[in-house]
Design a protein that fits this description.
homotetramer, about 130 residues, alpha+beta, Thiol Ester Dehydrase, Chain A, 5-stranded antiparallel sheet, 3 helices, 5 strands, about 25% helix, elongated
Chain lengths: ~130, ~130, ~130, ~130
């Protein structure tokens, strides 16, 4: 299973008064990690939307193991964990150095511009099959 | 089971280029709903933090049933679904009128200022038992 | 000059590790205050966009006088401070009780769907003239 | 005048239903650019806060020249434009390739942990003087 890796720094705005990253920030990082996984796969997600498709999220979760702080350099490891006719699931692991901070999962359905579910575009299936 | 109800309007900043609310926005709304549930319970969460406690999130998830849009007036129905020695879980249902848009759940551990888990403060247990 | 007033509570996500509201949050509140000012004026901004117009921001500023905290109930006083052929400016004052926390200003140009500047829609000019 | 340069990609969450970056996102990018300017100056802003100082923002503004979109790679050019006894101002220019998208300015006062203004820490003045 290919692991897509992307690093980012925790932004000041992503912290809250508990002085750690806000729990909602992780879902933003998952989104950034997906964008970068698509790019590494050879497909820009922005292009996908220009072609009339979108990936509507149907489920998202996160387990928080340890907090992270402003300016921490964290790594997000992303895998495509499930491929169905019209949906994709991603698993995420968030690390600071070797320490696991959080794990997450999101599931997305391919939709057309009207928000109706459609089969996964051929091009994407091809790229995923090559992983 | 007492249902705490709170309504809010989807903000422009909470939308994304798919022209619906961003998936991470729901976790912000869950947080707002928790704050208001605590207030209705007779306890301001801000006071709880002033007294040296905090509620560290350990798990969060959301299932998305239907999208919502800018300026939609949505209602969040919150219940306290699990009470343990040092943790609380909340269930959420997001509605637009009678239509269910999303369901979610978060679990939180009571911690002291150093982030160490502690037993649920007596006062809170008392208020929850009275529901 | 009509003053549109709207109150909101500072959300947890809007705080940062300085334990006050993040400086960028004020621009979100200005946006919420504009939406509510339009509604009070008799015009839903969402409808305006459905009719093919949008208000593109060209300038935004904020002066910060005193910080605010999580769960503070703040009031935003909004006035339409400048009306030109194709642009509008709003002035904002943010209060906690009688205390002024911040002042701000934003300027917006009416655009069509392609982002080209257009004259202010007739209907809006009419509503503004009646203030 | 030293120009600190930092690049980032527009995140999906930073867009809004106008399908361009939300106006408040620019202030987040300014904050990221400041963090990176401090790092390049030889000083981590997170360390500064650990030592009991903070930089409270007193003024922020942005002029928007042209919109940017999801996944655009933008560069933020930051200069320290004003140095006073207890305050610092930063100027920002946001570019996509050679095209200027926005300019901005923020002013910050050095404060102690209680939020009282203090003189700029010696170490910082030294680093700034060396630019």
């Amino acid at each position: 299973m290919k692991v897509f890796k992307f690093s980012l720094r925790v932004r000041y705005t992503e912290t809250d008064q508990m002085q750690v990253a806000y729990y909602g920030s992780y879902f933003v990082w998952f989104e950034v990690a997906r964008t970068e996984a698509f790019r590494e796969l050879g497909l820009e997600y922005s292009k996908l939307e220009e072609e009339g498709f979108c990936l509507m999220v149907v489920q998202a979760n996160c387990q928080y193991e340890a907090p992270c702080k402003y300016d921490d350099l964290i790594a997000i490891h992303t895998t495509i964990s499930e491929v169905k006719n019209s949906s994709l699931s991603f698993d995420y692991q968030v690390y600071k150095d070797a320490k696991l901070l959080a794990t997450g999962k999101t599931t997305h359905v391919f939709c057309n511009k009207k928000g109706k579910p459609v089969r996964m575009p051929h091009k994407i299936r091809g790229l995923i099959n090559k992983i």
